[in-house]
Design brief:
Elements (H helix, E strand, L loop, with lengths): L10 H21 L6 H8 L3 H8 L2 H24 L5 H18 L1 H13 L18 H13 L7 H21 L6 H15 L7
Helix pairs in contact: 1-2, 1-4, 1-6, 2-3, 4-5, 4-6, 5-7, 5-8, 5-9, 7-8, 8-9
Length: about 210
């Protein structure tokens, strides 16, 4: 059996897992989450179904590995860009642009990840997209908190502010799901302007 510890996997193990995950992303995008069987994924990966079972154990673990890889990559890239800034407004601007830039440059991965998150249910029947925690939104929560504390963002309940930002970003993801070739650049500019207009404290001259 392959090592469960990513740090202990061989180059061959990592390459084979990456090949299978890429095939799973392709399969979900082509025929949907519910029809993405191990057989369909194996055919697109060019491997035997037993190879997928060997590396991932079951269809559910494979598809959850897709989710983990897609959104870990997104979070890491967004955090790297955002934390290069120090002021709340600059951080939020960087966060919004980095998020949608990543969506635009990883369209296949993100659309497949979103479909799995929406369609998959946990053992107790809870939709996967409802299992998120505050830690999942920690970065944007910290930015908004800092901005409110500094007096540059309007005071409002933090969960409301976080939900608004995430909901507006979700529209960009939906546009890519609707049309994989859509030009996101105008949408990115308007998203940043729209969110900042809603959050920034209006400055009045004395």
């Amino acid at each position: 059996m392959p090592s469960p510890d990513p740090a202990s996997r061989t180059f061959t193990e990592n390459a084979r897992r990456a090949q299978i995950i890429t095939a799973a992303i392709t399969t979900v995008n082509e025929i949907g989450y519910h029809r993405a069987s191990l057989s369909e994924i194996a055919a697109r990966a060019g491997v035997a179904k037993s190879a997928i079972v060997y590396y991932f154990g079951a269809r559910e673990r494979l598809l959850l590995s897709v989710v983990d890889q897609v959104f870990t990559h997104l979070d890491q890239e967004v955090a790297q860009v955002t934390l290069a800034e120090t002021e709340p407004v600059a951080q939020l601007t960087a966060y919004l642009r980095a998020y949608l830039d990543h969506v635009g440059s990883h369209r296949a991965e993100v659309t497949a990840g979103i479909e799995i998150v929406v369609a998959h249910r946990t053992e107790d029947g809870t939709p996967l997209y409802l299992t998120g925690t505050e830690e999942d939104s920690r970065l944007v929560r910290d930015i908004l908190t800092s901005g409110m504390d500094a007096g540059v963002f309007r005071q409002m309940p933090l969960p409301v502010a976080v939900s608004i930002v995430e909901a507006v970003l979700d529209v960009g993801v939906t546009e890519v799901q609707r049309d994989r070739a859509v030009d996101l650049n105008p949408f990115i500019d308007e998203t940043v302007a729209f969110i900042l207009q809603g959050l920034l404290v209006e400055r009045r001259d004395a």
